[in-house]
Known about the structure:
Layout (H helix, E strand, L loop, with lengths): L3 E4 L5 H12 L3 E6 L2 H11 L4 E4 L5 H15 L4 E4 L16 H26 L6 E5 L15 H20 L4 E6 L16 H13 L9 E3 L2 E2 L3
Parallel strand pairs: 1-2, 1-4, 2-3, 4-5, 5-6, 6-7
Antiparallel strand pairs: 7-8
The structure holds NADP nicotinamide-adenine-dinucleotide phosphate.
NADP nicotinamide-adenine-dinucleotide phosphate binds next to helix 1 and helix 4.
Amino acid sequence: MKPVILITGATRGIGFAAAKQLAARGAQVIIGSRNGRRAAEAAELAGGGAGSVELDITDQASVDAAAKQIGLQFGKLDVLANNSAILLDHYQNLLELKPEVLLETLNTNVVGTLRVSQAFAPLLGKSEAPRIINVSSGAGQLDGEPQAWAPAYCISKAALNMLTQQLTAALPHVTVNSMCPGWCRTEMGGSEAPRTPDEGADTLIWLALEAPHSLRGKFLKDRAVIPW
Ligand SMILES: NC(=O)c1ccc[n+]([C@@H]2O[C@H](COP(=O)([O-])OP(=O)(O)OC[C@H]3O[C@@H](n4cnc5c(N)ncnc54)[C@H](OP(=O)(O)O)[C@@H]3O)[C@@H](O)[C@H]2O)c1
């Protein structure tokens, strides 16, 4: 039976690249977007019978409605790819960062991811081999030199990595990991980035379909574990 895979924020960028490749490999992909029409158009473009769902990860009612829709359509969820994120403070100085910008960033990148994971946990519980993949970033790594280019975004991705560890502990039957796609040419990454969205999606796809379930509670890049 086809694995049922929900990718949040998958109308463009890395999420869409992952959706297209996973659909081509026979998965039942569901593309999430705040805009239902754009989600349906992206599903059509992705091919392979991909479905779509309207899903704003900052809105509890929207998340609950999406979980209800997918429950009715498929009765389970095998893979939840938490890909949605915002980056509002490119090259901002931390000392001038407005607290509201940090709160908005955390509300999407961290609280939104938790909200979706909570709402879909019962459907993941119906899968024989459930997985959660949190699309994080090297920007959130505590290892190495401090990064100063987008403080709210970096803080949110470090928090997302801890959320990955917390979800791993809270959901012992689910294989939960964080991954970094590398710097990719998307709306968020910009045109100077060295990687294509397809290249950025590779580890997500591997985690969704092939990675051993014993690999859990880790942070990965290029299919290998990296330091937090
Ligand atoms: N690009 C890079 O270089 C890079 C590097 C490291 C990590 N990442 C991570 O990779 C992931 C994908 O990034 P990308 O570059 O593909 O970004 P992108 O093109 O800007 O796409 C981000 C997606 O997030 C969705 N989104 C934003 N707010 C949302 C909300 N409230 N509810 C639901 N969806 C929401 C948007 O979907 P809708 O507008 O359709 O709702 C959009 O499709 C992100 O987690 C990002 O942090 C990217």
